[in-house]
Design brief:
This protein is mainly α and 165 residues long. It is 70% helix and 0% strand. Helix 1 packs antiparallel against helix 2.
């Protein structure tokens, strides 16, 4: 492994650990609604971690796509198009998308609907609030982003393979 590949790998590992921890902190600091209690007036502390997470996660997605592109380009040099790998990534994306959709609805069903429904606990609030952070930022959507980044890396390697052979 070359020195630049080692740096890329270490960067991905460090960012993976850091962004995973931040995703967990978003969940930890998302309030859970207690129906026998009152609504929280403490703002949205989970947003602090979201603001830290987003730029680091964007860099992780970029580096993952770059590493994926390099990996698949090397595989394609040998004449193998890794269609099995591509299909695996597509199926994984479909499964994670369904899980993310279900989790999103699980959160909002627990709140009795979204902000546009009068019986909802978050009626007249924004869709993103201290009770719904994890509907958008969770390990399912986190993993989905990484898999989509790998797919983009594969697509980039596939499109540019002719000029590199």
């Amino acid at each position: 492994m070359t020195r630049s590949q080692q740096r890329l790998l270490w960067s991905i590992v460090v960012l993976l650990l850091l962004t995973s921890a931040l995703t967990g902190l978003v969940d930890l600091f998302t309030f859970r609604l207690r129906w026998n209690g009152h609504l929280s007036g403490n703002g949205n502390p989970g947003l602090f971690f979201v603001f830290l997470l987003i730029p680091l996660y964007a860099v992780l997605l970029f580096l993952t796509g770059l590493a994926s592109r390099r990996f698949f380009r090397e595989k394609m040099k040998g004449g193998s198009f890794s269609i099995g790998s591509f299909l695996f990534l597509i199926v994984t994306t479909a499964i994670l998308s369904l899980l993310a959709y279900g989790y999103y609805h699980l959160i909002f069903n627990g709140l009795r609907g979204g902000p546009d429904q009068p019986d909802s606990a978050i009626f007249a609030w924004g869709r993103w609030n201290q009770y719904t952070n994890t509907a958008f930022i969770n390990m399912i959507t986190y993993s989905l982003g990484l898999v989509c980044s790998m797919i983009l890396g594969y697509a980039s390697a596939f499109i540019t393979r002719r000029g590199r052979e």
